[in-house]
Specification:
Helix content is about 45%, strand content about 20%. With about 200 residues, the chain is of the alpha/beta class. The chain is globular and about 70 Å long. The model has no long low-confidence stretch (mean pLDDT about 90). The structure holds guanosine-5'-monophosphate (5GP). Essential for recycling GMP and indirectly, cGMP.
Length: about 200
């Protein structure tokens, strides 16, 4: 029987929405059974961050050499630094039948959508529509200019959603995590995925 390939899970969303916090909470839960892909970056480590745990910290030259070699599944420049996903770990882990979880910004997610359309794309969205409206209009003290800038940002964020399979509102970290775990469970039951396994079994593979 062929071993089913793991699921590539991509969590992304606008900057400041809390992707990192949600990811850390997911991986602090004891029953999490997907693997975190540690990213590479050229930014400096923050206080308490450990090389090989939080990120693989690289120089720009090292990072660019890796891009040249095709060693990254995706990469993007974000606030003046490179971020990218090492491809070898992702492929080895998926081939071993384990799910891989990426927490990345939106440009990188768009690249994966092209390269791996069967991945699971989850968009972490800002709190709730009501809160969004409150934030946009503010307390009535914001200038029309500030409000229109906020609306423009929110509209861009909404447009980005169209690349994703699911949208999870980050109203509370634990709620967001519950929804993400439910989506991953459901995704494993998706007919297209399950059917492939049954058919290959019937073929005696
Ligand atoms: P930070 O510098 O705060 O750790 O991360 C900045 C942004 O980079 C966050 O939005 C984070 O999701 C994103 N990021 C982290 N790793 C990767 C990666 O491997 N690829 C891409 N495209 N973005 C990443």
């Amino acid at each position: 029987m062929i071993k089913e390939r793991g699921l590539l899970i991509v969590l992304s969303g606008p900057s400041g929405v809390g992707k990192g916090t949600v990811r850390k909470e997911l991986f602090s839960q004891p029953n999490t059974n997907y693997e975190y892909s540690i990213s590479m970056t050229t930014r400096n480590p923050r206080e308490g961050e450990v090389d090989g745990v939080d990120y693989f910290f690289k120089t720009r030259d090292e990072f660019e050499a890796l891009i040249e070699q095709g060693g990254l599944l995706e990469h993007a420049e974000f606030v003046g630094n490179y971020y990218g996903t090492p491809i070898a770990y992702v492929n080895e882990t998926l081939d071993a039948g384990r799910d891989v979880f990426l927490e990345i910004e939106v440009q990188g997610a768009a690249q994966i959508r092209e390269k791996a359309p069967d991945a699971l794309f989850i968009f972490l969205a800002p709190p709730s529509l009501t809160e969004l409206k409150d934030r946009l209009v503010g307390r009535g003290t914001e200038t029309a200019d500030v409000i229109s800038k906020r609306i423009a940002t929110a509209s861009e964020e909404l447009e980005m959603m169209s690349l994703y399979d699911y949208v999870v509102e980050n109203d509370e970290v634990t709620n967001a995590c519950d929804r993400i775990n439910a989506i991953i469970k459901a995704e494993h039951c998706r007919r297209e995925r399950v059917e492939k396994r049954y058919l290959s079994m019937l073929r005696g593979e």
